[in-house]
Amino acid sequence: MPSASCPECDSRVFVDANTAMGDTLVCEDCETELELVGLDPFELDPAQPPDPEVRDGFNIFEEDE
Ligand SMILES: [Zn+2]
After folding, report:
1. To 5 degrees, how large is the angle CA 57–CA 62–CA 65?
2. Residue 55 confidence (pLDDT) above 80
3. Domains in the chain: boundaries
């Protein structure tokens, strides 16, 4: 099974062949949620929780002074 390195703890994280770009995995060692950001080679980044103040690059408080 293909694998990638956890960006947090450098452990090997197995990537299922059905995993697609943007899918999230969880490192079994540090339990960090990781997002698949590259396929060749497999590359993982810590998955960022959605920022409640910014959506699609727009500040939702923009219209309110
Ligand atoms: Zn890890």
Report:
1. 160
2. no
3. 3-59
